[in-house]
Design a protein that fits this description.
elongated; 405 residues; alpha+beta; 6-stranded mixed β-barrel
């Protein structure tokens, strides 16, 4: 009997005992599918986290001033951050890997228009902000350098403000709106960047507004630049670029009482990786126990099969079958049983991850390497736990086997 015939006989045996075979494979199915599902969800969550931190429109890393001076008693003293100019930010932009440097300020104001009143955040920006953030212009024009240089009383509103404060057929561009009882002209409307889940919060439900940062500084008495964000040309090198930009800005400001530092975004990924590894090891250990139980089940059912087919073994030996052929036959049946369990586990895992993708805020990613390892591992279980029954079958005496009732 060749290998092809051995596989055919193994499949026939499994098919003739369907319920018993499925129950035997259950531990293998659960073990393999559990590992694939956990890894798929973990990889999907990690990819989503990386996209959120380092995607094209969200790859800004903040620079903030950290003081290094202390009182004589060892307590940290308050130090006013140095004033940062637009020229200094232009110099930071020359750092290798830096694509944009955004200097902004902000405030909260009350907008009045068409008998509607709304409190909203107003962000002070320069002409680079619109391009760097990849905002979509819906109506009118963007804020430009002249607006900042001349303290122009102009504003851009987002689509959420447009919807809430203007009638659908009303022209927003050119309209005069009141902010804190002072008139300003709307020069443009852009697509809101607020995530849908934030738009129902009281502080964001009315949208946002952009104004020249020089105007915001004059309106609220704040620095012209109080928030600095660096956008790298390669998001994968965002952290390194942020560190280099912070070092350059510290040098330019010449502060001896502190230094600019960049937030290490990679720390979030590393923290998640550590948590994910712990969960994966825990679930994998449970899956390993399931596979062990499944392997013992396979060994048990193969021993039963050897007992049931004792006369068949004796007949085959009497007809010239060698010990190696009998051993190979039962090993093939064992490996076929566990491999089928592995394949069913993979299919079940694919189904679960597809359903999970409908409810999770990210898409689980099935790792092909894990799938291949799952198949190989389930086959290995068939060999390890099938060797004892196969060895027992191969050692049967043909005379004793033929007499077995």
């Amino acid at each position: 009997m060749n290998i092809r015939e051995s596989f055919a006989l193994a499949l026939s045996s499994i098919w003739n005992h369907k319920i018993r075979s499925i129950l035997t494979m259950l531990g293998i199915i659960i073990g393999v599918s559990a590992v694939i599902i956990v890894v798929a969800i973990g990889d999907g969550a990690r990819q989503q986290m990386a996209d959120d931190l380092f995607s094209t429109d969200e790859n800004a890393i903040p620079l903030y001033f950290e003081q290094t001076t202390y009182e004589e008693n060892g307590e940290m003293m308050w130090v006013e951050p140095p004033a940062v100019t637009g020229e200094q930010l232009d110099a930071v932009k020359e750092v290798a890997g830096v694509k944009y440097v955004l200097g902004t300020n902000s405030g909260w104001g009350t907008m009045n228009h068409n008998e509607h009143t709304a409190d909203m955040e107003i962000i002070g920006v320069d002409n680079q902000y619109f391009i760097a953030k990849d905002l979509t212009l819906l109506e009118g024009r963007r804020l430009n350098t002249r607006d900042n240089d001349s303290y122009s009383r102009v504003a851009m509103i987002d689509s959420l403000t447009r919807e809430n404060m203007f009638a659908p057929d009303e022209e927003a561009v050119g309209a005069i709106i009141d902010i804190n009882d002072n008139p300003y002209k709307v020069v443009g409307v852009y697509e809101s960047t607020l995530p849908p889940e934030f738009r129902h919060m009281d502080e964001f439900m009315n949208g946002q507004m952009l104004m020249p940062r020089t105007l915001i500084s004059m309106m609220f008495g704040s620095p012209e630049i109080d928030t600095i964000n660096v956008i790298a040309d390669q998001p994968d090198n965002l952290t390194e670029t942020g560190f280099a930009a912070a070092e350059k800005l510290t040098e330019l400001t010449g502060s001896e009482e502190g230094m600019y530092v960049a937030e290490d975004m990679s720390a979030y990924v590393e923290e998640f990786d550590s948590f994910y590894m712990t969960i994966t090891l825990f679930i994998s250990s449970i899956a390993g126990i399931s596979l062990l139980v499944g392997g013992i089940g396979v060994m048990n059912i193969m021993l039963v099969s050897v007992t049931e087919r004792t006369r068949e073994i004796g007949l085959r030996k009497a007809l010239g079958a060698t010990r190696g052929q009998i051993l190979r036959q039962f090993l093939i049946e064992s490996v076929t049983l566990t491999s089928l369990g592995g394949l069913i586990g993979i299919g079940f895992a694919a189904l679960v991850t597809a359903v999970a993708a409908m409810f999770l805020p990210f898409t689980p990613i099935i790792n092909p390497v894990v799938v291949i390892v799952g198949i190989l591992f389930s086959s290995m279980i068939g060999i390890v736990f099938g060797i004892l029954p196969a060895n027992k079958a191969s050692k049967l005496s043909p005379i004793d086997a033929l007499r077995y009732e």
